[in-house]
Hints:
The structure holds two protein chains of two kinds. By secondary structure, chain A is mainly α. Chain A has helices spanning 23-26, 37-57, 76-81, 84-107, 116-136, 140-143, 145-152, 170-184, 192-213, 215-221, 224-233, 264-280, 284-290, 295-328, 332-339, 344-362, 364-369, 395-424, 427-454; strands at residues 30-31, 238-240, 246-248. In chain A, a hairpin with a 5-residue loop joins strand 2 (238-240) and strand 3. In chain A, helix 8 packs parallel to helix 12 and helix 14 packs antiparallel against helix 19. Mean pLDDT of chain A is 87; it is low at 1-26. Chain B is mainly beta. Chain B has a single domain (3-147), classed as Immunoglobulin-like (Sandwich). Chain B has one helix and nine strands. Chain B has one helix at 3-22; strands at residues 63-71, 74-76, 80-84, 88-95, 99-103, 108-112, 118-123, 128-134, 140-147. Chain B has a five-stranded mixed beta sheet, with no helix packed on it. A four-stranded mixed beta sheet of chain B has the order 2-1-4-7, with no helix packed on it. The radius of gyration of chain B is 22 Å and the shape is elongated. Classes of the chains: A mainly alpha, B mainly beta. Chains A and B meet through strand 1, helix 2, helix 13 and helix 18 of A and helix 1, strand 8 and strand 9 of B. Strand 1 (30-31) of chain A pairs antiparallel with strand 8 of chain B, so a sheet runs across the interface.
Amino acid sequence: MRRRLLPIATAGVLFLNDARPALAHGLGGRLDLPVPRWLFVYGAAVALVISFVALAVLWRSPRLEGRKERDGHDGPLQSLLSSTIVEWTLRAVGLALFLLVVVAALGGVDEPTDNVAPVFVYVWLWVGLAFACALLGNLWATLSPFDTAARLLAIGDEPRRAYPKAWGKWPAALLLLGFTWLELVAPFGATPRTLGVAIAAYTLITLTGMAVFGRGEWNRRGEAFAVLYDLLGRLAPFARDGDGRVVRRPVLGGLPSLRPEPGLLAFVGVLLGSTTFDGVSRTSAWTSLVGGLGSVSGTLAGTAGLIAVTMLVTGAFSLAMASASLVSGERWHPLAVRFAHSLVPIAFAYMVAHYFSLLVLEGQLGLRLVSDPFGLGWNLLGTAGWSVNLGLLSVGVIWYVQVVAIVAGHIGGVVLAHDRAVASFPARVAMRTQYALLAVMILFTAIGLLLLSGG
Amino acid sequence: MDKRWIAVAVGVVALVGIFLAVRPRDDADVPKAPTSTETPSPSGHEDGEMTMEPSATMPAEDEVPVVVGVRAGKVTGPGTATVKVGDRLHLTVTSDVVDEVHVHGYDLTADVGPDEPAHVELVAATAGIFEVELEGSGLLLVRIRVEP
Lengths: 455, 148
C-alpha cells in the first residue's frame, strides 16, 4: 500500500542540546505511536496460523542444513566485486570515517546533536549497517576499521597464544552488552566525549585481542561488531565462495553453517534482550517505575533491567530447549546452543521494528552533520542547513513495517528451527521437539508485538 | 489433493477472514497522511519560532491546556496528553526548583522556577509521542501523544 507522503518540515525539528541518558530513545525524544490493538491482534493471529500451517506443510527432510555454496561465475561484475582495488578503496573509506568519528567525538563540540559521532555510531552504524548487512551480506568484513588498521600495522599476523576454546564468543557477547548498555542505559552515553572514550577503549581491546590471539580469531569471537554483522550477513541472499566470488544463496541460508560454540547463545541473547529492553523501557510502566529515581539509582535500575531482560529472554529459550531435550534425550544446553541460530532472524526483526523509524527520521540528522562534523559551523557539502523531516514516514507505514518485520522474523525462526530439527532427529522426534520451539517463538513474537502496541 | 495444500488454503482463508474481522470498518484507526489543510505547515522555519508564541500565561480558547506540577521531585499531571495532528497545545509547568522545561522533538525550551511557571505553546505538527522533560534533573513531566 502506498500512502501519500507529505513532507512537513516540522518546525524547529528535533534535537536536543542535552545529555539524554539513552540516545536510541532520546535522539529527538520522538517515540513511535503504539501499534493499534486490531493490528496487534492480527499480527499475533498471523504468527499463530503460520506456525501451525508450518508444522503441517514444511519439508520433512532438511533443505538448508548441509547445503554447499555453489561456485560463483566469472564476469565483469564479479571481477569488480572481488577486485583488490575496490576492496582497499572501501577499507580506506571505512578507516577514514572511523578517524573522522573519533576526532569529532574527542575534539568536536560536546553536544549529541551538533556532533556527527553519536548519530553516526548509534544510527548509521548500529542500525543502518545492520540493515545493509542483512540485505547484502557481511559488509563489515571489508569496512571494519579495526581489521584494516590491524592489517596495515601487521597486528595479529602471528598469534602469540592459542585462543582458549572455552571462551567461544563470550568476549563478543560481553562487549556487545557493554555497547548496548552505553546506548540504552549509561548516563551521557550519547555525548560525544563519552562515546569517544568508549571507542578508544574498544579499539585498544580489539587490537590487543588481535595481537594476542590472531586477527581472524578475534574477528570471529571477540570483536562484537564483526560477530554481529557476520550473524546478520548470514540472513542475506548473498555470500562469497571459497575464492571470494559473490554467489546467490537462499535467504537465511548462511545461518545453518554457523558453528555452535560457547557464548553463541549469550551473544544472540544480548542482541534480542537489549532490543526487548529498549521496548520495555519505553512503556509507561517502566518510566513510572524509574521516573522518581536519581541519576545513579536510575542507572543502576536500567543496568539491572537490561541484564534481567536479557536473562529472561535467554531463559525462556533455554526452557523450551529443556523441554525439547526431554523428547530427544539429549542434554538441554548443547541443544540450546545448536538451535540458537534460529533466534537471529527474530533478533533482527526486533531491530527493524524498533529502529526503522529511528534510521529514516533521526538518521537524517547525519546528512546535516556530515557537512559540519565537529559542530564548528562549517558547511562542507552544502547540507548543513537541512532540517529533519519527521513527516517522511506516516504513522501507518511505521506500523505496517513493524508488524510485518516481527511476523517475518517469526517465520524465519520457525523455518530455521524446523530445518535443524529434521536434520538432527528422526522424523517423529523432530515433530515433537518442534512444539516447544514453536511455543517459545510464538512467545517472543507476542512479546515483540505487545511492546509495540504498549506505548 | 495433497494434504499440505489443504493446510495452506485453510491458513490463507483464516488469515483473510481474521483480517476482515479485526480491521476497523470505518478506517477510524487507520491513519491518513496529514493533508495540508489539516496541518498548518510550519515549513521554512528552522527554529520553531513559528510554533513558539510569546508566552501567553493563559491557554486560549482553541488550545488544549496541559498542566504539570513538580514538587519535591514528584510530578503531578496527566502523564500523557493526547492531541490530534494540527491541535494547538498550551503547556503550563510549575516547579519548586529552578530548571528548564524541554519539549523534545520540537526542541522548545522555557525556564521554570518557584516564582515563575513555564508556559509553552505549540502546534502538534507530526504524529508521534514527544517527551517533555526537566532539563537539569531529567525528570519526565509529560508525554505529548499526537495522533493522526
